[in-house]
Task: structure prediction
Amino acid sequence: MRAPARAISGPFLSALAALVLLVAALLCYLPYREVRVRTLAACNAEQLLLARQAALGLEEYFWALTEMLSHLAGHPETLRADSGGLRQTAEQLLARSGEIKGVTRVDAQGRIVATYPAYPELIGASVADQSHNRRLMTEMKPQVSDVFQSLQGYQAVVLAVPVFDGTAYAGSFSVLLSFAELSGKYLDGVSLGEGSYAWMIDGRGVELYCPVPGHVGRNVRETSADFPLVLAMAEAMQRGEQGSTVYTYDRVRDQRTESIKKFASYHPVRLPGTIWSIVVSSPEQLILAPVTSFLHRWLLLTLLCTLGVSGLALLWLQGRAQLTRERLRGLAETRLAESRQLLAEVLENSHIPIVMVRFDGVIEYINENCRQTYGYTVEELPTIDVWFAQAYPEPELRQQIQQQWEARLQQARDHGRNLPSQLRRVHLRDGTVRDIEFSYSIVHERFIITPVDRTDSLRLDQERQEMQRRQSRTRKMEALGLLAGGVAHDLNNILTGVTSIPELLLLDLPPDSPWRPSVVTIREAGLRAAAVVADLLTVARGVASRKEIADLNGLVQEYFASSEQRQLAASHPGVRFCCEPDAAPCPLLCSRVHVRKALMNLVHNGAEAISGHGRVTVSTRREHLAQPLRGYQEIAAGDYVVLRVQDSGSGIAEAALERIFEPFFSSKAMGRSGTGLGLAIVWNTIQDHEGGINVSSGEEGSVFSLYFPVAEGRVPAGDRGSQAREFCRGAGQSVLVVDDEEPVRAVTRQMVERLGYRPLTAASGEEAVELVRRETVDVLLLDMIMPAGMNGRETLAAVRRVRPDVPCLLVSGFAASEDVRQALASERCLFLGKPHTLEDLGRALQRLLR
Result:
């Protein structure tokens, strides 16, 4: 994929054009400003030069004429002050200067004494009041008069010099000059061009010369009252200063008034007795005309240069842009190649299997993980149909999968979105069958398929669900066991009198008494009820059993030699009972009673599961589990002795298999009591021995396998036979019976007395402590559960603070309590469950007193 060549954008060209225009404007403005400043300075200098030249011309004219008049004033003809002498002098002056229009001789009193040309009417007229004559008479120096209107009707000015007769003032000698000719001679040609002219004022501010109509003879304060810059310049001129200034003046042309900006330079004209000032002014348009012309030429040149530079810059930028595009294209192609390489490496090294399939069914790509996991390459699976043939060997299933594939393909073409994943059981190349989850993504008319093996995770899910079911079953059985334990405790207290009183009565009744059969019946009924309660206590795991090392083979043989087994065989004549013990000893640490009871219940259940003829086989063996056994429940790895009971019955229904170990669950008579406690006793027995149980059942029968941990140590020599029954009597020792229930306390007192002991009784723990303080007590027979006051453990602790060495026989209808366990942990303590026979009580007391 090539990077697109991008042209120079419009905003960039606009910015470039703006930059070029800015540079061009700067290139135009900076030289223009410099030229303008220099032009204005040159203009002012030139105007000042013109004004100075005109001023110097006037000054030289007047001073030369003053020298001439002063010289002529000393001639005798001038001193005579007659017409004849004046005429000769005047003709000489008129011949030398055309501006001189007349000559006048004034006496010392200021009266005209002679004129040339002759004006008789003026002879004798006084001119002493004229300002220049007053200054002359006062200062005795040459004076120039103000410009005035002569009798002949033209503008005139008078230059007068004093006349001395020796040292005495003799009047003045003056000439009349035509101001128009004089000013025209020096000012008419002063101009820089059209609109540029010179004008002149005297020391009073009166405009002596001005080409603007109506200004001559008027004061500048009147003609320029609305133009303060002109007035400021006039004041400087009146002070005899020179300089340059700028002012704006209104010009009326064709009945239109326009403001004109003028640049002016002024210079003083210093004359005898007075001062004039000449100003040369030019309009801005005239002065800046060369600048404007320069600006136009400069603009044209700048524009041409700018266009040339812009063209070159544009060509350079186009070249740079082309080079940049080529470089970016190369960089993009390199990055694209790197991205493709990176994508290929990511796909190839992904920990997820990936397959790429085109819509036409061609397999384009299989990554390394997929090849390693499933064993196929693209060469071996060129199309999806080949995969279907390999993964689904059954024709019907393969056809169904292909139809679903076509439907998914059509759905992808119609909607173009990803499809939901599917879980399939497929055959792999090595022949194994695995559960594979196929996820589909659509990219450019291709399926990106990720086949993930879910076999192990599904198995773990099943195992987790199975564990949850087992935990639920365990919690349920524990709850039912606690309920059964509570019931058993109450029943044992009741059955104490039902079993013990008939036994005491039988000791007193003669053998031929008519009441003896009835009493025996009552006692046997109580014993059967006590057996049911014992089963309940086993379910509740509340029997304080004493564990010892025994041989599982011996326990099995004891059961097969027992009356219970003979009765079972007699009631099931079609069932053959087989015993197959292991040749080697199978030692275990156990409660012999509970293991035998569990074995009896399993054999009984197996016999009842057989309709007609069948077989129940009991076998033992030693087994080492290298790994945990996951059966009906998980059994930890280790060494075990296994009790296996197998029957050839009809098996256990799958729905009932989950509940067979629940107390009171039974589909028919179970155990010798038929209460539904048989398998619950088996379950609690194996739990109490920290073992495990596995059950398998089918149409050919059921197998129960009980796993007991192997015990360390040797089996006692007398383990295989039962001990002889022993009826032990006392020798008058004192036994303190402590029980909070009066009927139980009374029956126990009678039993202790019949056994040859001296009974003492206490209804509470507090009363027992007081009796121990007063009486000699050889044995403490203590009920563990006394709700009011001190309980059994607290009573034992209090008694042993008084008599530390007193032995104690703990009695209770329920032993699954922490108090019983703590009490049994102390020295010289035994436990005897309720109800108990006279023989059991006698044997327990004898063991404590040895």
